Amino acid sequence: MKGLIAFSVLTAAMALAGCGGNPAGLLQKFLDTSKAYNALPVVKRTPAFHLEPVEKRKQWYYICDGDRHVGLIGEDVQLFDKEANCSGSKVENTCFADAARLCLTMGAFEPHRNNEMPPMTSRKLTITKDWGDSIEFKHEQVHPGGYAGSIEFRVVWDERLGHVIYANSHFIMPEPKQIEFNNFMAGWVSDLRDRQKRWQKTLRGRLADGRIVFVYHSPVNLPRDEVQPGSFLGFVTEERMNPFVELLETSGPVFFATCNVWYDQHMVMKAPQAKEADGMYHLRARYRLLSVPAAVARELEAVAVDSSTLPGARPHLTRSGFLLNKVNDFETLLPSDRVCNAAIWQHIEPSAGEAHSGKYSLAVHGPGPGKVKGVSPVGGGPPLPGTAGKSYRLSAWVKTKGLKDGGAHLEVTGWRGPPQERFTVVTQPKLAGDHDWTRLQLEFGPLTGGMSIKLCAEGTGTAWFDDVELLEVAR
């Protein structure tokens, strides 16, 4: 109770005016010296902000400026591409294809590494200003044992950058934890389809040594960077929108991390070292979400260093991947030193010896009678993307040896409709005993969303999988 009282007093004391104060981060310092930025037209205007409820969604609102949707308050806060028309888009839990997001909630980073925190018991969204020259709102979260957090947001107009979202985060805890105070993401950065994927690189500045780096979107390239106060993250490069988050102030040291496939950028503050006067540990951060014009983004790119070339980076060509619309023969490993829109095989690597083509295949060993070992091209993140209304074919060449009490098979789980329903399909009959290379395939759909695929060995024995392919097909 003492912690919650202290939290209430402290959050009440956080002035929203501070959200929109003069920015003092490293990105703004770069902008101030940028020829491209200083050549941008100055647009002096008073925005006509208002909130529009999202149909059938409780406490979800479009952020509007006049007759345009410029953002969304939902399970996160989104800033839309200035030229995109999102008014008719289906609202999802993650950001629109033409948007970037800031999270409403905060939480312990990597709780599996002795950084656990009690689950959230309640959350509350309060709109403090719903029209005029700004939009202001606050999200609060409460956990058992005195853990609680609050993020205050303010949406404003910047005469060079357009719409900008400012945020103040404050987290209070009885024990010091490493807290992810924001999770930054741009639309479709997790999409493996080349024709869909946007923002193929992420800029990070500045590291502890003062460098600005770029991170190729490759499931092998997963740097974790210690950064200076006032640092920034940005997805690049698009002509219409290049979303950046700039740290303005933090109460402690910060690092950036990312996932494979799902290229959300974790903004994490290290555990506080000392209690404050109320006997609790506190974490505070002030930051903003904005879109950097393409010409300025290209200037930033020009000074950035490839993160995969820095000391301590993961070596090139380290993992076997899965590419859509390609025959995956396990002969070539994924590179970390260039963009690679792929997934990696989860907890398994190709082995030499048995192969339908080349020298390598995936050997999957059955775990025993009545049990199934399934391997998937995931490695963290969402299911493989699918296009609504389209059908697909999954195929693979399979060899078995001594496989009994089950057999080798392919499995797909996904969503189809209407009405929308979850489905699972499995190749039949399963390959049991000893079989030379045999082609298995599944056709399924039409889909309403993504899909998960598995190469399975059921029972006792071994199955080898090679030349795996997932294709869109006409139905």
List keywords for this structure.
20-stranded mixed β-sheet; disordered N terminus; 475 residues; Beta-galactosidase, Chain A, domain 5; 31 strands; 2 domains; mainly beta; Jelly Rolls; single chain
List the helices and strands and how they pair.
Blueprint (H helix, E strand, L loop, with lengths): L1 H12 L12 H8 L1 H4 L10 E5 L7 E5 L2 E6 L2 E5 L18 E5 L3 E2 L13 E8 L1 E2 L2 E8 L5 E11 L3 E12 L5 E8 L14 E7 L5 E4 L8 E12 L6 E8 L3 E5 L6 E5 L11 E11 L2 H10 L1 E2 L12 E4 L10 E2 L8 E3 L5 E2 L7 E6 L2 E8 L1 E2 L12 E26 L4 E6 L4 E14 L2 E27 L2
Parallel strand pairs: 14-20
Antiparallel strand pairs: 1-2, 1-8, 2-3, 3-4, 4-5, 5-12, 6-12, 7-9, 9-10, 10-11, 11-19, 12-18, 13-14, 13-15, 15-16, 15-17, 16-19, 17-18, 21-22, 21-23, 23-27, 24-25, 25-31, 26-31, 28-29, 28-30, 28-31
